[in-house]
Write a structure and sequence with these properties.
The protein has helices spanning about 65-70, 125-130, 135, 140-165, 205-210, 250-270, 280-290, 305-310, 315-320, 335-340, 340-350, 380-390, 405-420, 465-470, 500-510, 515-530, 540-550, 580-585; strands at about 20-30, 35-40, 45-50, 75-85, 100-110, 165-170, 185-190, 195-200, 215-225, 235-245, 280, 305, 325-330, 360-365, 370, 395-400, 430-435, 440-445, 450, 480-485, 485-495, 535-540. It has about 600 residues and is α+β, with helices and mostly antiparallel strands. The structure holds aspartic acid.
């Protein structure tokens, strides 16, 4: 075989006259009568190869044109040739190799290929087809660039954590289920028939045990498995940077992770982050942004309008306030000029999708506000409303009166939509923050019991500990989420290291001491055996790659992703297995 002496991405004018060998895939062929041009592609780039009969370079090629004619896209070939300057005017400044071409003197077909089902360099093909022929899809330079970024990001994480004194430790894939709120993937045991392993939803309990073992600082680039109905941008298996630290409080975990986040921002967004990153109380975030992952790339914050609403003559507001509901709104800069009546009907319909029964709108004009309900707002109340939002002429005030969670959901989604439509932010910008002091528990109305907001091992804030007995729903957690551009990119908590508090929380979650012992006996026992105060975090690696690569589809950041139905279209997993395998496992499939 003609083994390569250089890659397809490196030849420049410095190498003029050199004889080289290239290996790669045929990216395209252009037939110019007497001349045939081939673009040869590998991971490093593209090089133009010329086959020209009669040229002195090609004297050794028996029938260069016939040979080149037989080449098709995606054939794997080896070419020996001489580096030549391209003719003036034929250079391609977009390519590193754009000033040269290689004049073929010898070549070999290393492998043939049928016509690909989609063009490798072409426009985006149908995703199912791309996933089925993932090996072709992954040849695309744009996708390869994502995986190069992913590689660099992973290395940066690894090196930074190691530098900060963390040990990389692997924890089992075949383990005992640890509750993270999702359904487990189960693996039947052959040896202990009837019993099952669970794939880890995260290494949560193992990393806590490592702290009890005195490892002090642990990290792992960990694969996590959650058998959930797949929502957009979720995968049944995903990768996270998993971290745990001993003798820390929540500020220590956040400030340590900020060192890494600042390095990521520098490397992948070219930005020097001002540390510490902003910390926003969960409660504030819900009030100002309507959700717990605020997009800080723009303002347009939500405001409580109960006091103003009470001064209007608008029955809808009066009734809502009387029923203990809330009146909240936001002010879209320039929205009054931008949106027509029809657009506003569209926005009303949009928030109906989040349960809101109506949208009150007021356009801020020079003399007064206009809109179908403007007449219910006296000039004084209008002035108050305008000053509440610092509104300017041309702005649009949008108000929702409803249950608190409905106002949050509808206004947060409206805010995001308007932010985008009104170009209120630079789509290339990155804004980071921590959301802190989450509630410890969430009331599960269906099951009529509390559920853990993060997971059952989360430590309450010290000042809220006494509320565990009297007002559990008011207890706030030592929990923190890292949010980037409105996406949750990570989250963690300080853990309970006191067995008495852990038992109390289990009880609130509806677990009897026997059930707690049965499920988490090993953790409770570890906690009783000299557990240090500890806490940790996990950052979503796939999600960070998606953000920094500027992508919106998480499948483009994972080499072999699954579809929304959990299928791998290339291998056909999940698939039926040999009945013999099932017999060995003593598993029967019930139709
Ligand atoms: N185990 C948590 C998760 O995977 C992260 C943590 O609390 O460290 O989301």
């Amino acid at each position: 075989m003609l083994k390569r002496t250089c890659t397809c991405g490196e030849l420049t004018r410095d190498r003029l006259g050199d004889e080289v060998i290239l290996n790669g895939w045929v990216d395209g062929r252009r037939d110019h009568g007497g001349l045939i041009f081939i673009d040869l592609r590998d991971r490093y780039g593209l090089t133009q190869v010329v086959f020209e009969p009669g040229s002195p370079d090609a004297a050794d090629l028996a029938d260069p044109l016939a040979a080149a004619h037989s080449l098709r896209n995606e054939f794997v070939v080896a070419v020996k040739g001489v580096v030549n300057a391209r003719l003036p005017g034929k250079e391609n400044p977009k390519l590193k190799t754009g000033a040269i071409e290689v004049r073929a003197v010898e070549f070999e077909i290393l492998n043939a290929s049928p016509t690909p089902p989609f063009e490798i360099q072409g426009a985006e093909a149908n995703e199912e087809l791309r996933l089925k022929y993932r090996y072709l899809d992954l040849r695309r330079p744009a996708l390869q660039a994502v995986f190069e970024l992913r590689h660099r990001l992973t290395q940066l994480m690894r090196n930074t954590m190691s530098e900060l004194g963390f040990w990389e430790v692997e924890t089992p894939i075949l383990g005992r289920s640890t509750p993270e709120g999702a359904r487990d993937f189960l693996v039947p045991s052959r040896v202990k028939s009837g019993d099952f392993y669970a794939l880890p939803q995260s290494p949560q309990l193992y990393k806590q045990v490592l702290m009890v073992a005195g490892f002090d600082r642990y990290f792992q680039i960990a694969r996590c498995f959650r058998d959930e109905d797949l929502r957009a941008n979720r995968q049944p298996e995903f990768t996270q940077l998993d971290v745990e630290m001993s003798f820390v409080e929540h500020e220590d975990v956040m400030s340590t992770m900020e060192i890494l986040v600042a390095r990521l921002a520098k490397e992948f967004a070219g930005e020097t982050l001002a540390l510490p990153l902003p910390r926003i109380d969960y409660h504030d975030s819900m009030e100002r942004y309507g959700n717990d992952r605020p997009d800080l790339r723009f303002g347009m914050e939500i405001r409580d309008l109960a006091d103003v609403a009470a001064k209007t003559d608008f029955k809808v507001f009066q009734a809502a306030l009387a029923e203990g509901k809330r009146v909240r709104g936001l002010c879209a800069p320039g929205g009054g000029t931008r949106y027509s009546r029809k657009d506003l009907d569209g926005l009303t319909e949009f928030i109906a999708g989040f349960g809101a029964k109506g949208l009150v709108w007021l356009k801020v004009e020079a003399d007064a506000c206009t809109g179908p309900t403007a007449k219910f707002f006296s000039p004084e109340v209008q002035a108050e409303l305008r000053s509440k939002f610092d509104a300017n002429v041309g702005d649009l005030i949008l108000i929702v009166a409803d249950e608190s969670h409905v106002t949050s959901q509808s206004l947060s989604n409206l805010r995001l939509r308007l932010g985008l439509e009104l170009s209120l932010y630079d789509p290339k910008a990155f804004r980071y923050c921590w959301v802190v002091r989450f509630p410890l528990l969430a009331w599960d109305a269906e099951e009529k019991r509390f559920a853990a907001e993060h997971h059952p091992f989360t430590m309450p804030l010290p000042e809220d500990l006494h509320l565990l007995d009297t007002a559990p729903s008011k207890v706030r957690a030592q929990a923190y989420d890292l949010v980037v551009n409105g996406e949750e990119c990570g989250g963690g908590t300080i853990r309970i290291h006191d067995p008495a508090i852990q038992s109390k929380v289990f009880a609130l979650l509806g677990l009897t001491p026997e059930q707690a012992e049965e499920k988490f006996g090993f953790l409770l026992s570890a906690l009783k055996n000299g557990a240090p105060p500890h806490g940790g975090i996990a950052l979503g690696l796939d999600r960070l790659v998606m953000l920094y690569a500027g992508l919106t589809n998480i499948r483009d950041c994972i080499a072999f992703p699954k579809t929304a139905r959990g299928a791998d279209l290339m291998t056909g997993a999940p698939n039926t297995v040999d009945p013999k395998q099932l017999r060995e496992l003593r598993v029967r499939v019930v139709e």
